Amino acid sequence: SLEKILERAREDLQKERDELRREKAVRVKDRKTFMELAQKSVQ
């Protein structure tokens, strides 16, 4: 039925959004770590 299709599409979107958020969080953490390392090597 159409409702099931819409429901599944919404779940897929939610899953993709969660994965994107997780990837971004990891990237931000990596960047912070990189900046800390860069500052240490400058000192």
From TrEMBL:
Q: Which residues form a coiled coil?
A: 3-30
Coiled coil listed as a keyword = yes
Q: Does the keyword Coiled coil apply?
A: yes
User: Sorted alphabetically, which keywords does the UniProt record give?
Assistant: Coiled coil
What is this protein called in UniProt? Uncharacterized protein
What organism is listed for this UniProt entry?
Answer: Nymphaea colorata
